Amino acid sequence: MTLLTKLNDDMKAAMKNKDKESLQVIRMLKASLQNEKINLGRDLTEEEELTIISREMKQRRDSLAEFEKVGRDDLAEKTKSEIAIVENYLPAQLTEEEIRQIVSEAIEQTGASSPKEFGKVMGVVMPQVKGKADGNQVNAVVKELLNQK
Questions:
Q1: Which of 6, 78, 127, 133 lies 20 to 30 A from 48 at CA?
Q2: What is d(CA 79, CA 75) in angstroms, rounded to the nearest whole number?
Q3: Coiled-coil segments, which residues (predicted)?
Q4: pLDDT tens digit string along 31-71?
Q5: The CATH number of the domain where 62 resides is what?
Q6: 3-state DSSP call for residue 49?
C-alpha cells in the first residue's frame, strides 16, 4: 500500500468519524505529496515520500519549540497533536542507544577523530537514520561523541 493510498483511506475514516483535526493534518500531508509529485512530473519513490513527511514533521517540531519559547500553550498543544498524527506515517523512531550505535560505527568507518570532521560523519549517518530520527538529536549525539575523541 502506497503512502498516498494510506492517506486517502485515513482521510475517509477521519471524515466518517468527524475527526476534523486528523482530517486537516492528513489533507496537508497529502497536498505536500501531490505538490511534489506535480513538481517532479512523476510518481514519488518511497524515499521521496519519506523525505516529504519528515520535512512536515520537522516543520511542526520547529513550530512547537517556537510556541513553547513564547508561551503560546494553546498553539503548542495543537501542534503536539498534529505531531502525533504525522508520526503515524513515519517509520518507527530509533532510540537514543540505536542512534549512538550508528554514530559510533560511522565515526569508525570515516576515521573521524575531531569535531572538525563533523560533516563527514553526518554525511554517513543521515542516510541511515532518514525519517527514523530527529536531525537535531542525531546532531547532538555526533557532536558529543566527536568531542570525546
A1: 78
A2: 6
A3: 4-50
A4: 999 999 999 999 888 888 888 998 999 899 999 999 999 99
A5: 1.10.1510.10
A6: helix
